[in-house]
Structure formats: C-alpha cells, structure tokens
Amino acid sequence: MGIVVWLIAAALLAALELAAGEFTFLMLGAAALAGAGITAAGGPLWLQVAAFGVTALGLIVFLRPYLKRKLTQPPAIETGTQALVGKLATVEEEAGSSAGLIRLDGELWSARTVDPDIAYEPGSRVRVLRFEGPTAIVWKET
Asked: Where is the NfeD-like C-terminal domain (predicted)?
C-alpha cells in the first residue's frame, strides 16, 4: 500500500509541475519516486521519509539551478538583424541623417548616421550600431 501512496504523490507532483513550470514540483516528484523505491525494497517508514527528504533537498539545491540556467540562456547564435550589429560595412550612397545605402555582408541595406549632423561619402567604412526596423544606424569606423 505504501508504494502506491508514493507513486500517486509522484504523479500528482509531476502534474502540478505542468502548471508551475519552476522545476520545484518535478524535483519533489522525483524524490517521491525515491521514497517509492525504498518502500519497494522493504525499508521502514522513517527511511522512506529520509530518502524523500534527502533526495528532494539534493535535487532542489543542485539539479534545479542547473536546469533553470540551461533553459534561460540566450541563444548561442544571434539571428536576424541582431547578427549584423557590430559588423563593418561600406557606404554605397551617401549616408546622412535621413537616408543612405550601405553594403553589409554583400547585401544592400538602407542606412542613416547616428549623428544627424554628419554624412558619410561613398566608399567610407562604417560600423553598424543597431537597427531601427530595416534601417541600419551606422557610425564611421576610425
């Protein structure tokens, strides 16, 4: 009978994890499986509870932070326009405060300067600081 209680507890805790999403209930459910394992081996109640407590503490303290860190890491490879920020480009048509064209990674992009009082002549090397929609905001490379 005791093993059934531990297994039901593990299933309920795992189901609660679906609502919470913080890995706490999942760790407690795994600890309940440890208690079920001790029960199946014929261990006394105090050993079942101790196994549950030690396993829960260990999983919450050591495994949970690792899992959360792994799932919240930013993508290793930037995609879209963010992948182009910081790259060098060549001015194709004069880039000023309102318009211009640059060649960035072999493609033409609309561009404007970060400083509205400055314009860059064709052939100038510029660095992409950021994107505002499809327009690259650039600064002259020194």
From this structure: 82-140
Tell me the pLDDT tens digit for each residue of 28-86: 999 999 999 999 999 999 999 999 999 999 999 999 999 988 888 877 777 788 889 99
Tell me what pLDDT residue 137 has: 93
Q: Which residue has the tokens 């999983």?
A: 59
Give the model's pLDDT for residue 121: 92
CA separation for the pair 139, 113 (Å, rounded): 6
Residue 34, Ramachandran bin (φ over 0: left; ψ between -120 and 50: alpha; else beta): alpha
Neighbours of 74 (CB within 10 A): 6
pTM equals: 0.54
First to last CA, the chain: 77
Do the Cβ atoms of 128 and 89 come closer than 8 Å? yes
Check if CATH label 2.40.50.140 holds for domain 81-140.
yes
| Start-end of CATH 2.40.50.140 domains in the chain | 81-140
